[in-house]
Amino acid sequence: MRAFSKLQMWKQFALSVATIIVISIISFFLVDLVGYKSISLILLFTVTVLSLVFSVWPVLVSAILSVLIWDYFFIPPFLSFHPITSEDLLMLSMYFIIVLLNGIFTSEMRRVEKIAMQKEEKLRTLNFYNTLFNSISHELRTPITTIIGVTENILNPDNGITEKERIELNQEVLIATERLNQLVDNLLNMSRIESGFLEAKKSWCDVSELIYTAIDRMPENLKHRSVKAFIPENMLLVKLDFGLMEQALYNVIHNALVHTPEGTMVSVSATIRNNNLEISVEDDGPGFQFSEDKTQPDIIGQKHRAGGLGLGLTIVKGFLAMHGGGMKLSNRLAGGAMVKLVIPAETMEWRENYGE
Amino acid sequence: MENKPNVLIIDDESQIRKFLKLTLSSAGYNVSEAASGKEGIQTASMHPPDVILLDLGLPDADGKEILKQLREWFLSPIIILSVRDSEDEIVSALDSGANDYLVKPFRTGELLARIRTSMRQVSNREQTHIIQTFDLTIDLANRMVKKNNEQIKLTATEYSLLTLLARNENKVLTHQYILKEIWGPTFTEQSQYLRVFVGQIRKKIETDPNHPKIILTEPSIGYRFVGESCELTCEKKEPVARLF
Fold first, then answer.
1. CATH architecture for residues B6-125
2. Which residues of chain B lie closer than 8 angstroms to A237, CB-CB?
3. Architecture of domain B127-234
4. From the CA of A300, how many Å to the nearest CA of chain B?
5. If you average pLDDT over residues A86-97, what whole number do you get?
6. Residues of chain A contacting B239 with CB distance shorter than 8 Å
7. Cβ contact B239–A220 (<8 Å)
8. Topology of domain A203-348, per CATH?
9. Are A63 and A23 in contact (CB under 8 A)?
10. Any idea what the Cα angle at residue B182 is, between residues B181 and B185, rounded to 5°?
11. Integer CA distances (angstroms), B110 to A109, A337, B100, B204, B242, in order
12. Would you call B111 helix, strand, or coil by DSSP?
C-alpha cells in the first residue's frame, strides 16, 4: 500500500480520478436498482480506500470530484447541480465532511508512522556507529598505547633493561605499528568504497595467478600456515579487476587464518558456474557465530570469531559489489567456516598461440 | 670514503628525511637532502647523485612533474617513495621513467634492497650477454635458455617476453609497456595475451609455477623479473626483527 504514496504526484492524481470515474460509470448502471442515496455510500467507500493509498491532495481532488459527480449525475434532477430536498443537501454536506476528515486522518496517521520509523532507523544507525566507533577507537588506542609506553621506556636513561629485552620491546612496537597500518589501510579502503570514487577496471585475468598472488602475499607471521588451492586444470580466463579481487581474496583468506587456531587447514577453490566465477574459502576451524536472524553474521558479530572489526569483510563486499557480485557466509556441515564469492564475469578460452 | 654512493632525498617531511638519512648513512651512503622539488632539481644538477629518492607529494610542485623534469637529463635511478598507492599513480610514475616505486610505509630492508638493485641495473647496462638467476640461465648471444643446465624450448614470443623482462631485471614493467614492446602499440589492451604467455613461461622456467620466484606479479601494475642475487624475494623472507 505504502508503495503507491511514493508514486509521482501526477500519477497519483490520474489514478485516483480514473478510479472515481470508473466507479461512477459502474454506479450509473446500479442506480435504478439501489437508489441514488446508496450510490453516495459506494462513492464514499471508494474515496476512503483512495485515502488509504494516496497522498492527501489527490484524495481531496477525488473527494470533490465524487461529490460533484454524485450531485450532477445521481441526485434528481438529473444533469443538474441543484439539490431539491433539504435531506439531499444535508447528505451532500455530511458526505463532503466525512470524505475530508477521512483524508486528513489517514495522512496524519501516515505522517506519525513515518516519524516513528525514521526515529527507529536513526537509533539503529546510531547504535551501529557507536559500536563501530568504540571498536575503532579500541583498535587504534591499543597499539598507540604500546608504542608510547615502549618508546618512553627505552628512552628513559635509567630503565635498566637488557639488550634482549630491548629487542623484544622493539618487536612489540613493530607489531603495534603493523596493526595500525592494517587498520588505516582498511579505513582508507572503506572510505574509497563509500565515496564511490573507486571503480572496477576489468581486464583478462588468470584465476590461478589471482589466487596464488593473494596466498603468497600473506604476512610473515602467517606464512607457515597451510593454505591449499584447488583450481581446475583448464580454467578459463576471466575478466575482472585483478587488484580489487586480489585484495578481496586476500582479506577473506587472511580472515580465515587469523580467526582459526594454529593447525587449521584453509582451502581455496575456484570454478565457473552459470557465467559466474565462484571462489570458496573454507576452513575446519570453529566457524562463524551468527547473530539472531541467522542470515548474516553482523559486522560486529565478527568479534565473536576473536578480534577485529569486521571491516575486512565489509571491504570484500564493497569490492565484489563493484563487479556486480556478492558474498555468502556459512558454516560447513563438517564444521568450520565457508565464505563463497560469486562474481558475474565474462570468460575466454585459454589460447596458446596469440601473436605467433 | 670517496667511493660511497650518493643518495639524494627529495621529501618535504623532515621526520622522513631524518629517518632516511640515519638509515642510509649507517648503510654506507652519502646522503643529501632537499625539502622541495625546486631545491631537489638544483641539488641534483649541481652534484648529480647516484640515486634519487623522490616523494610525490611536494609542497611546490607535483612530484610527477619533478620526475619528468629530472628525466630530461638525469639518467641514474629514481625511486619513488609515496603514500599514494593507487595503481594508476604507480603505473604513470613508472611509465614516466621512475625505476621503482615504494608505497609508504615501507620496510627499511626493502628500501635498501631496491636501492641496491636499481644501481645494479645501471651497471648491467653495459651488458653481459648472460643473465643468471636462481637455476635459470639466459644466453642472449646464442638465444638459449637453460634451467638446471638443461635447455628449455621457448616459442619466439615466449623468448622475446622473457628476455624483455630479464634485460630489465628487478624493474617493474607495466602491462601496457610489455604489450606495446612485444605485440605492438595497437595491442595495449589485450591483457589476455600477457596472462597466457606469462603463465606458459612460468610453467617452463619456474620450479613451482604457482609460487613463482623469477617472474613476480605486481597486482594491476605489471611484472618484475627477479635478478641474480634474488635479493628482493630473499629480503622479504628475513625475520621481522632484522628489518628495522
1. 3-Layer(aba) Sandwich (3.40)
2. 192, 195-196
3. Orthogonal Bundle (1.10)
4. 28
5. 81
6. 220
7. yes
8. Heat Shock Protein 90 (3.30.565)
9. no
10. 55
11. 66, 35, 12, 29, 11
12. helix
Which residues of B fall within a CB distance of 8 Å from A216?
211
Which residue is associated with the grid cell 597500518?
A181
Residue of chain B nearest A237, judged by CA positions = B192
Question: Is the pLDDT reported for residue A45 higher than 80?
Answer: yes
ipTM, 2 dp: 0.82
The DSSP result for A300-354, as a single string, is: TGGGGGTSS-SHHHHHHHHHHHHTT-EEEEEE-TTSSEEEEEEEE--EE---S-T
**Least CA distance to A167: which residue of chain B?**
B241
Distance separating alpha carbons of residues A168 and B241, to the nearest angstrom: 9
Q: Which pLDDT does position A355 carry in this prediction?
A: 57
- Entry pTM: 0.71
Count of C-beta atoms within a 10 Å radius of residue A232:
12
Give the separation between CA A139 and CA A101, rounded to whole angstroms.
57
DSSP for A114-171? HHHHHHHHHHHHHHHHHHHHHHHHHHHHHHHHHHHHHHHHHH-TT----HHHHHHHHH
* Chain B residues within 8 A of A143 when measuring between CB atoms: none
Residue B153 in contact with partner chain A when CB distance is under 8 A: no
Q: Kindly report the CA angle at A81 between A75 and A87, in degrees rounded to 5?
A: 50
Residue B243 is predicted with a pLDDT of 28
Low-confidence ranges of chain B (pLDDT < 50): 1, 230, 232-244
Interface contacts A/B by beta carbons within 8 Å: 74
- Give domain limits for chain B: 6-125, 127-234
Q: Please list the residue range(s) of chain A that carry CATH number 3.30.565.10.
A: 203-348
Residue of B nearest to A349 (CA): B192
